[in-house]
User: Which sequence fits this backbone?
């Protein structure tokens, strides 16, 4: 199974699962952002694995991966801006303490 | 790139230019909100004209990555109307709070460009880029009042859940692409049809895509971000968020599920049916308990997602049931009536510090008769009482579910029961407006001309669609028939 498409898909699946777990388990907004990045990078690994092992997809894979990286960067920028804005208001990055609407 | 590519994407390019024009105008003449709004509205009018113009010569652009068909035009015009109404309603709320109007308009137009890209995408990658271009400005708008704790709190919840769901959606897309070997929507449909059923890996991909989309449309049980994001955002933004990204996400559903995954509609039919029942029932049940009108309308928008999903289920069960036409009509009707309701809430909150609690509405019918009548109209339309747009929207959905046959007519029954339950919380606001006296008489508010125009347009559209729904039903039918069905 080593060096096969399946191996890489399993690896990227595990990475994605790790990111998902991190997102659900962590309560720090920055950690949650990092977990999302991990998930997106797992997707990129999936895309590149398909491209590396299936000759028909080879050309597309790198283009798709580049676009995904660009979009992820834009998303992270917006996310950090929002985290900074809320940190200025609340002085904490912990999402559990963002509960002003639940009185 | 050929000349026809350029003409077909002309509305998108124009929309981007409008957004840049607003920013440039604001840089040249800072804080002249009226000029920025005028530029924005004039630009949106040009985009609308270009959209209708490109519809004269529909076709595929960029080697089949982007398509202009009647569906694209129909959805684009809804998006333009949504953004135009939001730009009209916004300044009255933003001005007294010292929030910049020009950036608000520009960000909205950027989001609209993304939504238009979704509506016209014939390629999964274009679809994903359009989705991100639509939602990223939405996150910023949710946190637009950046010194306000509630606004930033809503924004971070919206952002975290939104990008989480984008990642899930993307993971699914990667599998769909890897296993079908193409990103073209028509190609994916062909590959799936040729494969005669789902392989387990492709089924997993489709499941991830479905989950990601369910987050975007706020279907139960993926709706947790909605109430906080809607309640926290500045009210005109909430109005936009409750319709713009929602119609955009349904455009995405039509492109992905009806077109690309059309050959396996029997497989996603039960999923949509279950989501529809859960979404409308839970949305309505929780809305009943709310005392904050913004939060109540947030839950009500979840319920409306459920009604729209009923139409989609009917389509999946029987493509000739009229389900897709009903969905398209519903999206247009819902946009006007929901934006109208939020516009009234926004008008009441003109003075900073006024909350959107039910008490704010006490005595409104006497204090501001016009606003009271219009709010009643929007709420009756949301309930689905004739002669309003909401009545025909619900009627079409229910009829299509009845026609679909099989177990789908059960959904029609559940929809009717839900509509009755929803009447309770919509009409409670009307009771407050006409039968309660305010505890403290609020100060008089002078509404700006733009806001009056915005509310009036939404009200006229709600009434016209309720009295003369024919033309829009025809347009929806034409749009649905232009669709490529895998």
Assistant:
């Amino acid at each position: 199974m080593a060096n096969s498409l399946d191996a890489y898909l399993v690896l990227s699946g595990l990475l994605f699962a790790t990111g998902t777990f991190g997102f659900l388990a962590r309560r720090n907004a920055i950690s949650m952002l990092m977990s999302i990045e991990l998930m997106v990078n797992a997707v990129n690994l999936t895309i590149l694995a398909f491209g590396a092992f299936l000759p028909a997809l080879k050309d597309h894979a790198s283009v798709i991966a580049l676009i995904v990286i660009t979009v992820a960067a834009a998303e992270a920028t917006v996310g950090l801006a929002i985290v900074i804005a809320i940190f200025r208001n609340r002085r904490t990055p912990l999402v559990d303490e963002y509960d002003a609407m639940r009185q | 790139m050929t000349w026809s590519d350029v003409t077909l994407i002309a509305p998108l390019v124009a929309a981007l230019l409008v957004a840049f024009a607003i920013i440039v105008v604001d840089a040249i003449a800072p804080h002249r909100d009226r000029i920025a709004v005028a530029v924005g509205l004039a630009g949106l009018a040009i985009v609308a004209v270009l959209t209708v113009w490109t519809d004269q010569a529909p076709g595929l652009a960029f080697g089949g990555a982007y398509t202009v068909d009647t569906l694209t035009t129909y959805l684009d015009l809804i998006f333009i109307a949504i953004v135009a109404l939001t730009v009209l309603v916004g300044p009255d709320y933003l001005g007294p709070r010292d929030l910049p109007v020009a950036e608000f308009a520009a960000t909205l137009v950027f989001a609209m460009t993304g939504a238009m890209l979704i509506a016209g995408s014939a390629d999964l990658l274009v679809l994903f880029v359009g989705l991100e271009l639509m939602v990223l400005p939405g996150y910023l708008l949710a946190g637009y009042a950046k010194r306000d704790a509630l606004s930033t709190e809503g924004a971070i919840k919206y952002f975290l859940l939104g990008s989480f769901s984008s990642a899930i959606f993307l993971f699914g897309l990667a599998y769909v692409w890897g296993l079908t070997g193409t990103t073209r929507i028509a190609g994916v449909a062909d590959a799936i049809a040729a494969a005669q059923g789902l392989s387990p890996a492709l089924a997993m991909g489709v499941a991830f895509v479905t989950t990601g989309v369910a987050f975007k449309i706020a279907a139960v049980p993926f709706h947790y971000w909605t109430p906080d994001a809607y309640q926290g955002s500045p009210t005109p933004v909430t109005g936009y968020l409750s319709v713009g990204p929602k119609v955009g996400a349904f455009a995405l559903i039509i492109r992905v599920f009806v077109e690309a995954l059309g050959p396996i509609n029997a497989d996603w039919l039960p999923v949509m049916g279950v989501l529809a029942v859960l979404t409308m029932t839970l949305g309505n049940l929780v809305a009943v308990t709310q005392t904050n009108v913004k939060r109540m309308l947030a839950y009500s928008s979840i319920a409306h997602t459920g009604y729209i999903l009923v139409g989609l289920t009917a389509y999946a069960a029987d493509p000739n049931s009229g389900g897709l036409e009903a969905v398209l009509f519903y999206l247009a009707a819902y946009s006007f009536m929901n934006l109208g309701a939020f516009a009234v809430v926004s008008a009441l909150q003109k003075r900073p510090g006024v909350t959107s609690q039910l008490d704010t509405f006490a005595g409104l019918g006497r204090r501001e008769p016009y606003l009271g009548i219009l709010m009643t109209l929007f709420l009756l339309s949301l309930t689905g009482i004739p002669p309003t747009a909401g009545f025909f929207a619900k009627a079409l959905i229910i009829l299509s579910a009845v026609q679909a046959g099989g177990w789908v007519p059960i959904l029609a029954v559940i929809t009717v029961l839900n509509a009755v339950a929803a009447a309770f919380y919509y009409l409670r606001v009307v009771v407050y407006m006409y039968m309660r006296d305010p505890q403290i008489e609020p100060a008089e508010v002078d509404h700006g001309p733009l806001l009056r125009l915005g509310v009036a347009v939404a009200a006229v559209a709600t009434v016209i669609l309720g009295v003369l729904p024919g033309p829009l039903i025809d347009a929806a039918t034409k749009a649905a028939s232009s669709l490529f069905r895998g």
